[in-house]
TrEMBL record:
Its cofactor is L-ascorbate. GO terms for molecular function: ferrous iron binding; L-ascorbic acid binding; peptidyl-proline dioxygenase activity. Residues 84-196 form the Fe2OG dioxygenase domain. It comes from the Bacteria. InterPro entries: HIF_prolyl_hydroxylases (IPR051559), Oxoglu/Fe-dep_dioxygenase_dom (IPR005123), Pro_4_hyd_alph (IPR006620), Pro_4_hyd_alph_FE2OG_OXY (IPR044862). Keywords: Dioxygenase, Iron, Metal-binding, Oxidoreductase, Vitamin C. One of its GO terms (biological process) is cellular response to hypoxia. Pfam families: 2OG-FeII_Oxy_3. The keyword Oxidoreductase applies. This is 2OG-Fe(II) oxygenase. SMART domains: P4Hc (SM00702).
Length: 203
């Protein structure tokens, strides 16, 4: 599918459902380069325990380790990711008038057994995050490995999305509570947020 149709399909599904899964944002080689870099940083202990709120560390609630992408100095694999996310952001702005001005992204690794309890991605007192986008990096993931992202829908049902390499999950940050279920193997991903201009922040 060419980019225009890929992005239009995503926009249509987002407009209707508020969430969608998009495959084909990056090539398999680009995805593998991100997975290799994330795994190498993790092995070198360069990822730090994630925090909930500004200072509070809460491994019970959230057991991943993360490293933010530096927009001023992205690595080659990160640059490829950010270029494609930016193309998607612009397309969604055109199709849905979302007014998304920037993206922020980090690597995340959940070791076996780690989870992220049910939550909303909107930070308290900050409505800048409009769209959550999670890109997954795990080759050969099986259902028995666990680690699904459980997305809670307004009607009381939920959907489980497995973290297969190359899958991008998109959902409206303010609308969908979600959680990361524990896995039996390391689970690598790039959570990313597309932001609107926020009155409280200089963008
Ligand atoms: O890795 C995932 O599937 C989602 C992570 C998440 O919910 C978050 O970082 O806010
Ligand atoms: Fe989240």
């Amino acid at each position: 599918m060419d980019d225009a149709s890929l992005f239009r399909t995503a926009a249509d599904t987002l407009a209707g459902e508020g969430w969608c899964v998009l495959n084909g944002l990056l090539t398999a080689a680009q995805t593998r380069a991100l997975a290799d870099e994330c795994a190498a940083l993790y092995a070198a202990r360069r990822l730090a325990p994630a925090r909930v709120g500004a200072t509070h560390m809460a491994t019970e609630l959230r057991g991943d380790r993360t490293q933010w992408f530096d927009p001023a100095a992205p690595s080659g694999p990160q640059q490829a990711f950010l270029t494609r996310i930016d193309a998607l952001r612009r397309a969604l702005n055109r199709e849905l008038m979302l007014g998304l001005v920037e993206s922020e992204a980090h690597y995340a690794v959940y070791a076996p057994g780690a989870r992220y309890a049910r939550h909303l991605d909107r930070l308290r007192d900050d409505d800048a995050r409009v769209l959550s986008a999670v890109f997954y990096l795990n080759e050969g993931w099986q259902e028995a490995d666990g680690g699904a992202l459980r997305l809670y829908r307004g009607d009381g049902t939920h959907r489980d999305i497995l973290p297969h390499a190359g899958t991008l999950l998109l959902f409206l940050s303010a609308r969908f509570e979600h959680e990361v279920l524990p896995a039996t193997r390391d689970r690598l991903s790039i959570p990313c947020w597309m932001r609107q201009r926020s009155p409280d922040r200089a963008v």
